[in-house]
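PROTEIN FOLDING TASK:
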Amino acid sequence: MNLSYIVDGLVVGFSASVPLGPIGVLCIQRTLNKGRLSGFISGLGAAMSDTIYAIIAGFSLSFIVGFIETQLLWIQIIGAVILISMGLKIYNTNPAEQLRRQKRNTKTLIQDFFSTFFITIANPLAIFLFLAFFAGLGVVAKEQTMFDQLALILGVFLGAATWWLILTSLISLFRSKINLRRLYWINKIAGGVIVVSVCILFTIWTVKEYFLS
């Protein structure tokens, strides 16, 4: 196994996760509201989803890519609806009630993980992002063994997880200075940012895909 593939995967996973889109805002909101562990576990859900798309891109599973290309509009619509619903839920969340519910609910972390996993998996454009990263690094042009491919995918997951650990750790430093009133407004801002950004991104993608192509 060539260890350079793990390094390549680390670079790809970290770089693909850094842009702070709606998932980043969601993880920041959860870190401030519920703690670093909740934010980090939410990030791991996104990292696992990204890893699945990296597998599709890295293993050149063209039949899956072809299916996604033909159904991209519907998949994007479903993903946008899920994210907007999540944004509205955050906007209307009472932080005091959220803290009480968190203490009673032992399944919160599992829910945090799978919520971001399903939201991220509903954004199949990530496949094309990973294809671009792999092509830029020349990974797809190299001869690979199965162990090399596994090392690459492991690196992607570790790189993404590293980013979420860094982000949630930094945000957690400010958590002690946040009271319930500030959490209330953080929920309003985070929910609003998610809804508005999804609407803008979906509109730009639709116009570019169907009117300017």
Summary: The two ends are 42 Å apart (CA to CA). The chain has a mean pLDDT of 79.
